[in-house]
Amino acid sequence: MYESYYGFSERPFQLSPDPRFFFATNHHQRALSYLQYGLDQGEGFIVITGPIGTGKTTIARNLLANIADENIVAAQLVTTKLTPNELLDLVAAEFKITVTGNSKADVLQSIEKFLINLNKQGKRALLLVDEAQNLPVETVEELRMLSNFQLDNKPLIQSFLLGQEELKAIISAPDMEQFRQRIIASAHLKPLNAEEVKNYINHRLAQANCNREALFSDEAFQLIFEKTLGVPRKINIFVDRLLLFGFLEELNNIDCNAINEVAKEMSVELTGSLSGNVLESDNKHQPLVINSTENVENIKNVLREVEEILESSIQQKVKMTRYIDKLLKQKNREFAELQSKTADSK
């Protein structure tokens, strides 16, 4: 879409975690250092927590992409609410372990045999568990039990847990003391500050080979920080949309007017919330009284909101029509130039 207009080699603000676009703030670099420290130690648990969208998965991908030690065999789990048995089955599947039998004992025996064979080859297993806040307490305890697999007093498998802030509450529970004693390092990621937002955006633009100077003004960077609260995932969603808007409006640079316009559009859409606020609901449902003045006013407000959403939707369709028209004109020009070159060559 906008890549050729702005001279990018690729989209710089994709949502999919990509180690090439990894940007290390102080907090992210500290977390990555802890992970590397954990690798060097070869034992215990490393725990990385942080709010949604702050880059935990990107850190995990960056670590896996940069492991230079061929003696480490790594697997990554993105968990749902797994039971202990489901966790063991998934571990076996990710490490491509052949399991003979259907019981939990059979799975554990197969995993232990696999880990011992790795040890005999001078290798060890690394397990990264992403979205670990979804694990029930008994499943986290199963991870601790896996760490008991040892040979010659050396652990055969090491686990890194990455999760949202709820993971801290799980690990802090009174019955998790044994697990806590196995944690050798932990870090908590935070949203970016205003200066880091500017550096983050410029870093991603540079990775996409952006050759335009002053695509964003300093005021624009500050406003993007205010709209996204410094959360990397929100920044990606918002700036990607800004660049599309700039392309459709044929803007050479993104100013505060464009940012406010896009923020207004996105405030009534489902393309990534720009607000950190959570809508509050009243659990005590009151019966609807049709002739109530208050309820009539509420209905009017709802209808006004629906009208705004429909108006915004129409505006988006108009913009997409303009975008398609622009693409067709561009393709026609390219086709005419190709025909002209072909005629000249004859």
From TrEMBL:
Top-rank taxon: Bacteria
InterPro entries listed in its UniProt record: AAA+_ATPase, AAA_22, ExeA_AAA_ATPase_DNA-bind, P-loop_NTPase, XrtA-assoc_ATPase-like
SUPFAM superfamilies membership: P-loop containing nucleoside triphosphate hydrolases
GO molecular function annotation: ATP hydrolysis activity
A Pfam family that the UniProt record links to this protein: AAA_22
Domain AAA+ ATPase, first and last residues per copy: 42-211
Record-given protein name: Putative general secretion pathway protein A
Organism the protein comes from: Colwellia psychrerythraea (strain 34H / ATCC BAA-681) (Vibrio psychroerythus)
